Amino acid sequence: MKIILLGYMASGKSTIGRELSKKLYMNFIDLDNYISEKEKMSISEIFENKGEIYFRRIENNYLKEILNSEEDFVLSLGGGTPCYANNMDVILTSQAKSIYIKASIGTLVSRLLKEKSERPLVANFDDEELAEFVAKHLFERSFFYQQANYVLNTDNKDLQEVITELRILLH
């Protein structure tokens, strides 16, 4: 089984993916980490040194590479991955099950405020600007996210509740 978790930054894709992979005895792959290892640079360094166009091209290539592998896995995508380079079509035509990890604007903003320093995209926003940015960005990306095979709302649920719901959804 191949499982793909997609959604906005701070929706919990990596946290959920790591836990789900343990429960299902499957490998966990974080696409951004995979790209960083392959390119021997952080995502920020890739953006700085080679630009977003280069990043989106290799992101598409590595996504296909992972999806074409024979192994079972839980794959956590970057927040923008489904929105570029026909990646959503690649995902939907693969054998993988895609799940949109959905969280409200309020939930996303409160999580992002706690981890702003680790998120270069939002590090310089004040609280109000961050809420506006997330709302606008989420609106633009929702078209892609909503195409996933499943949508799982995570608001007001702890990690174990989310994992239980995912396991039910996948069986």
From TrEMBL:
HAMAP family noted in UniProt: Shikimate_kinase (MF_00109)
Protein name: Shikimate kinase
Keywords: Amino-acid biosynthesis, Aromatic amino acid biosynthesis, ATP-binding, Cytoplasm, Kinase, Magnesium, Metal-binding, Nucleotide-binding, Transferase
Signal sequence bounds: none
CDD domains: SK (cd00464)
Annotated compartments: Cytoplasm
Pfam families linked to this entry: SKI
Family matches, as SUPFAM superfamilies: P-loop containing nucleoside triphosphate hydrolases (SSF52540)
Main location: cytoplasm
Keyword Amino-acid biosynthesis: yes
Bound cofactor: record note: Binds 1 Mg(2+) ion per subunit.
UniProt subunit comment: Monomer.
